[in-house]
Amino acid sequence: MLQRHKIRVSENINVIKRAHSQLKKTAEISLNLSDLTRDNLVNHLEAFYDSLIREEIIVSVKTDAKIFPEILSLCLSKAPPFFNNNKNEFKDSVIWYSYIYYIKNIKIEDCCLLTNNHKDFCDKDGGLHNNLKVDIALKVYNSTKSLLTENQDRLDIQPTKQIIRVLESAQRNPQFTWELLNENLKQIKDEIRYYLDGLEASSFVKDDLSKITLVGGLYFVGDVELKSVQDIEYEAIDNLLYITGTLICNVVIELMKHQPEDDDEPYCHYRDLNIDVEFELSLDVDENKSFEYVELFKPNVLF
Fold first, then answer.
1. What does DSSP say about strands 218-237 and 138-141: parallel, antiparallel, or unpaired?
2. Do residues 296 and 195 touch, judged by C-beta distance below 8 A?
3. Quick one: which of 85, 83, 63, 86 has its CA closest to 73?
4. DSSP code, position 83
5. 264-281: burial string, b at 16+ Cβ within 10 Å, e else
């Protein structure tokens, strides 16, 4: 998570500095941006987490060396979900088995896993992967909304006045979600590409011959265009507005065929496609109408 935060912070800083450079030229405005560095912002986040740990709001789970023999065995046998299909998600396996070891060692009951990393922790239906099921009560939630909605009575969470105003604004404007997505277009397109990366090349073709031909093939995601959002629902909890629905986008895909007989050129161009893909969409929007989280899952190619 921290590494991804560093990348996003760097991108946002570059946007601010480019805008500042233009302002200096056109409006003779100069601001002191010396403190606006990636390290300063990352240190601020780390300090925030440290304060949560000191106040015992969260617990930092340490990795125990006892988990590594099992992880090494899984890695060598290429056991899914962390090590199959030429993947080597060693970090995700360490995270998972560290949590499980901690839960069992401390004897915590009524646990849950909140993750939008469906590719590495869950099966296609969003449930915990069969190889990860353990002898403890652990329920998977694929969004913050589902976690809070299902446990509202236990947590006694009420929406803030400001988030109620955001909800009312959304209910008055049929284009509210569509406008939000387009205001954050780069982030949405990056998320679409990220989730498409988990598919097989054969997923993008309909006929059986092409599916067979593309076994072991590669693909590259090109231009992404948002087409529509459907079945939008809103729910305000605490200081967030949770938005769920369906997002349909158009994607350019370059398919590459595997050539095992050619060591110099193991892949060759097979076909370019322009296809529509449907995602289940979940957005967490704060009181300033900014994204807290974006979750896309269950990509479905529309033939």
1. unpaired
2. yes
3. 83
4. S
5. eeeeeebeeeeeebbbbb
- Residue pair 256/270 in contact (Cβ under 8 Å)? The answer is yes
Side chain identity, residue 227:
K
pLDDT tier, 15 (very low <50, low <70, confident <90, very high otherwise): confident
Q: What is the dihedral of CA 109, 110, 114, 120, to 10 degrees?
A: 70
More confident residue, 197 or 249: 249
Alpha helices in the chain (DSSP H): 2-26, 38-54, 68-76, 90-106, 118-121, 144-150, 152-155, 161-172, 176-183, 185-196, 208-213
Q: Of the candidates 63, 55, 17, 64, which has an alpha carbon nearest to the alpha carbon of residue 38?
A: 17
Reported pTM: 0.62
Structure tokens at 190: 């990056």
Which residues make Cβ contacts (< 8 Å) with residue 265, sequence separation at least 6? 259
| 262 has a pLDDT exceeding 80 | no
